Amino acid sequence: MAALALVALAVGYCLDKNPSCAAWAANGECDGENAQSLKTLCAHSCRTCELECKDLHADCPEWAKAGECEKNADHMLTACPTSCGICTPECRDQHPDCNGWRESGACEQNPSYMVVNCPIACAICERTAVDLDDSCPNWAKDGGCFENPGAVLRACGNSCDLETCTDKNSTQCEIWGEEQCAANAGAMLRECPHTCGMCRQVCKDKHESCAAWAAAGECTKNAASMRVLCSSSCLICAQMELALTSDPPKDEM
Prior knowledge:
Oligomer: single chain
Order of helices and strands: EHHHHHEHHHEHHHHHHEHHHH
């Protein structure tokens, strides 16, 4: 197996949403009768977006809001993968006072600033298994997650279908310690994913009905809960990504 070319500081990750995507792609399904749905369900395996991805235009969120992801899918999924929900951007709080502002109620009182500049503090983002190598879907399909967990499972948490980002027994994981993550990778990376650093803070929808709720106007009608539960469909992720890649944040809200 070639050396892993890990993503160091990716803006976002193009992730398959089903562990069978690599097999479907190998069978030609990306160009078959289900091609349209697989473009979004299996965005990585079907090469809808690159492993490292981001919106390519500042107007992407507005275009997505106008329905262009559906009206002009071929262009939009390539040019605006985050706004169209197939690219999952990594999060970071941009100010050292984010946690303090959250405690003072700023996430609710000043959401337009806080959700893009303090997305982790405001629970917009959550720890999620991602793929760090372009070959992850195929390695997983070929059994690498179990045959070579120290390399494949470590780099391909999404394709290897890592079921949780929380240590299953935090006390025992602390006793075993980080050194066991490499020495006993097959067990440790699944039993103690938090201790072993398997997941990244990313911005994505947290419920499968988010797209439908957003289409029904819930991002406006029920903004407070939707921006946390459905941050991708409500375009919070795209706005956050734009803030991260544009000018440095202001020091004050």
